[in-house]
Predict the structure.
Amino acid sequence: MTCGKCGYGAMDGAAICGRCGAPMGSAQPSCPRCRVAVHPRQPQCHGCGLALGGQNGCQRCGVAIPPNYSHCQACVTAMTAGAGTVPCPRCRAQVAVGSRSCPGCGFTPGMGNAPALPAKAEGPGLAANFWSQLDKHASLDKLEGFSLKEMFSEVLRKRTQEEVDDYFQVGSQHTTPEIAAVPTGWPKPWFFGRMLLFVGMLYFAQYLAFQQFQNTLMLPGMMITGALAMPFATAILFFELNAPRNVTFPRVLTLLCAGGVLSIFVSLIGFQISSLHRFLGAPAAGIVEEAGKLIAVVLMVRKGDKLYILNGCLFGAAVGAGFAAFESAGYAFNTFLAALPDKSHAGILFAAGGMVQSILLRGVLAPFGHVAWTGITAGLLWRARAQKKSVADALTDGKFVRGFLLVVLLHATWNFTAGFGLLFGLPFMIFVGVVSWYLVFGIVQQGLRQVRAAQEMTKTGVLRAFDPNA
């Protein structure tokens, strides 16, 4: 027999408990809710789960709650003091604390395990879904570990002249690092900012000289320097994003100058042959110019070029920078001619004001246009070339075609909204620019992963997926 007070096992026939001295006739403790016999030191009833002996219990159903739990395991009531209502675990209707059942669905807590909470069907937000669809269309992955602040954290760091000189001594047979030594984290470019500042200061000095002396001989220099500043700095940014460091800087300059001229020449032929601009207007440039720049990139490819995605991005950005610079200079000249009332000195000074505005506007927008678009297109082509036997096969690759059409759409949208005027068109152009650079960083991420894969493959001596000469 056991003591009804302390539960101590005593000998049969004992009059009092040998531990607590209570008469052995004391009643066995029982649960106050279901009357099931319980041990005096039992924390909760094994019949209904009611908290016993001063344990924390659910304020709704009375089931014992462990100290660190925030919700009742039986009825999912939140363990917050003073809560007036709680959601029903079945239908989520609000139920007053102390109610025996839910007024909505009739669920009675404490009568067994509560039903599983229905999963809340929440799809991704509109913005998240847009970027996800963009990744899917371009066959890209969601950006991981990316931070603009971290990427450009080295821009203001002080550098020695020796560091600057060594920075550009890459790309040759003796200065290209081994693929195993190439860092595959997000690059931290810095020189592009200094180049932008330098060329910008040159333009500003020319502008001040023109304002001070009103010498019209300064105008051609202003036109060239202003049109070149932003595209050239952006091309250098892509040069710094090229993690393999296997392209020389003179090669970049060649692509920028010769590739820029060639792409404009091919585009002019395209406009003349297709006559798309007569039917589509300004958006036709999205088709003709993107095709022209891509043809120029393909024509300037060398047989020994490796098939790294980041190389393709750099080649395309360099050609796009040349196209953007020469086109901006042309637009600045046309603006000057359109505003020129006469050939007098005063008339030339008047027309120069419109030219300066054109240079500044196109300079600010340059990084978001041709440089990024051609960088995207060429990067996608190099991605396809790494898996195809020829350039022709890569050009017909489904993933490349989808990505190229996306770039064409961005360019066409840019030109279409530009016709709305600066006030209404500029927000759309900024949106197109943000989308373009999102795609750029997505392709750069794929390029870095490709380099990482190449590093793994060097362990087995296999590089054919990226090097046509391996």
User: Anything to note?
Assistant: The radius of gyration is 36 Å. The first helix runs from residue 126 to 138. Confidence is low (pLDDT under 50) at residues 79-83, 110-121.
